[in-house]
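[agent] plan:
  1. take the single chain provided in the ticket
  2. run structure prediction with default settings
  3. attach structure tokens to the ticket
  4. add a short note for the reviewer (M.T.)
[agent] executing step 1
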Amino acid sequence: GFEFRSASMPLRSRGAARDHNLLEQAVGRLMQLLPPSTRASARCAEWWAHRRPPRRVLPGVRSFGLEGHPLHWDDDGPEAGGRKPLATSVLYLAGATEVAAPTVVLNTTATGSGFYVGDAAWVVHAAEGRVAHIPGGMLHGVLPSAGSLSVPEDAAQPARLSLNVAWWPHECRQSRPSSASGKLPPSDPAWRASATSDLDARAMAPRPVTDIFCSRDSCRAPRAEL
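[agent] step 2 finished; step 3 output follows
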């Protein structure tokens, strides 16, 4: 199974995060990149991290495969009242590996009477510094690596690392973990300066992969996009 732990960060009323440490600066940077309507409605940032492999590679291991992450909708438990987040942002801190292990977003949403299943998917490959914004109602997950990876010289370094933030319209009700606050890196003056300057970012919309639920006989083209 998968163990999941997250923490919540209150957002200031004018739609901004604090910057007392590097984590808050990263959340604030991600918030700057949100669509204006999402940024204006967000009141709580729920954050967590994904690391693959989940721990240091054992001595003697020369290659390994990356685990995937099951398809899911992000959920904030009872405090969300069954609603999905406004959006989820993924900041890839590491991930340009020799084999593909992309994030996959499906045009599948939960409705009051069941599910809407679309025929399109979007594939986002991890790259250091890349940010992906996923609409909150869309099903998403991570594929396992398409083959094995060589163990890097520093076996403690993750092959894939991401900071994930779900943006919620309600006030945070989950207490901030006090034990972790003292371990966070301090804020970076360069990040603070860049937050007030023009963003050096290039927005891209990945092309959808269509007919993802077709059968072998009904697919219009071979499924080679992944």
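[agent] step 4 note for reviewer: The domain at 1-10+22-54+66-145+159-174 is CATH 2.60.120.10 (Jelly Rolls).
[agent] ticket updated
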